[in-house]
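Slide 14.
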Amino acid sequence: MANPTRTSARRNQRLAQQRQLLAAKMQVVAWRRVVVVWLLLVLALVGIGGRLVYLQLLQGETLSALAKEQRSLPTLIRQARYPIVDRFGGVLATDQVAYTLYMHPKLFKQSVAEVADALSPVVAMPQNELLTLLNQQSTGIRFPGQLSEVVGDRIRALRIDGLELVPQQQRFYPQQELFAPIVGFINLDGKPQAGLEMAYAEQLAIASPQSAELIVPSSSSLGSPQNASLRLTLDSRLQRIAQQELEAVVKAYDAKRGTVMVMDAPTGEILTLASVPTYDPNRYYEADISAFRNWPVSDTYEPGSTFKPINVAIALEDQVISPDDVINDSGRIQFGKWLIKNSDYSEVGARGPISITDILKYSSNVGMVQIMQKMAASDYFSWLERLTLGEPTEIDLPSEASGQMKPRDKFINSQVETATTSFGQGFALTPIKMLQLLATLANGGNLVTPHIVEGMVAENDGTYLWQTEHADPKAVFSPQTTQQVLAMMEAVVAEGTGKPAQIEGYRVAGKTGTAQKVNNSTGYSSARITSFVGIAPVEAPRYVVLAVIDEPTGENAYGSTVAAPLVKRVMESLLVLQGVSPSRPSEMQ
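Slide 15: predicted structure.
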């Protein structure tokens, strides 16, 4: 029989051996795990090291640039540009510092409410709106719009952490609506879009965008290294008066649009080019896009009776009439299916034999037809070509339209074409072209190039760095002819339809115009375009003022009632500003 003690000992020994074997196996497993983990760590370190080598050595420059771009707030590189000034140096367009404000609430050391309370009056935003804006996100909140340099200085003075001002150049137009159609504007992308800003983009540029400064420390550092500016022929004083008077007339007659222009006839300098509609170029994005058109330059119209003095000059120069001739005004005249009559025929009827002066005084359509019928149609058309009727003036403004004339064959072979052209219809031209033609009557018969730009002027001594060049004046009428026509036009103001343009103490020549507007579907509509031209002083003619009002409404909307009084008010200011002395009693008629 087995000894129980010995049996128990052998059992314990086996258990101990099993435990040792199990411990050894577990130790082997543990070491294997350690080795695997270590190998994984080594592989991870090698992978990370390889990635770092790839990022640092191979992709370092690219990633650095991307990081810099992400850290930098968006800043638009703008083209630095010369200022634009009027003839007296008044600023019409200039570069200035503008700030974009970025707000980072996570950097505030005060509460958001406290920051909103301090910042609200400075940026002119209600506190509740600003608080809503600041609660949108923790960083990079852009304040809407741009802030002036003065506002930027006030924000700095608050000494609030988390407010970041990013300066950049901005084009500023201190005259706002006054010169917008002429000067144009720079858009939010820094690109010139209209007017002189676009037409003279290269000349106005100071440096290329690649070399322009991103951060502009102060407005005093802006501008040209040569301290120069683009000087115009315009007179801001007269422009403001003309614009105000024009807007009042357009409003009073509920007109579609209007313009009033003043030209120095001997030189072609434009002193005033006011037009409606207009817009604020500082806030161009709020304007109707139609306001961007400088319509006196870009749109054509049928001038009507203001063209009659040009036709009289043609007939006098071609010697088919003389100033003392008498023409039979029958009141109406038939050309096949077309009946032409005077505007006052229903009240006056046939005037019978009248002088050339009376034809202009009473604006007789039939009288003008009789005059131009004395000339061969081919000769008449050649005169219109000589006057460059179908060509642009080459004024230094963009988007100028050319005149519209009938083809030569149609004009010559259609008797009615010469008839309608005689009283200013059947063809079209721009208001600026009409001004150029009428100026020939004030400067002794020369066709001069109207222009707005004088040149680039150094501000330190007033010398020109460059000046605009224009075609030499083209003689189209003799001085004798223009003097004869001016005498007739003076009678229009003294005794005829131009009486509303009389200026006490001054000799003024003029001519009214009231033309039907073309309707593409029916020929002519009931809408009118009214105009008046004034020339002064007659004894030494120099200034030509032309007003054109498109579609005035009302029963009494004519050239004599709408445009003539407007020209009178502008001309009164012009004569005073230019220091023109009243006519001597011996010169008055």
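Speaker note: The radius of gyration is 40 Å.
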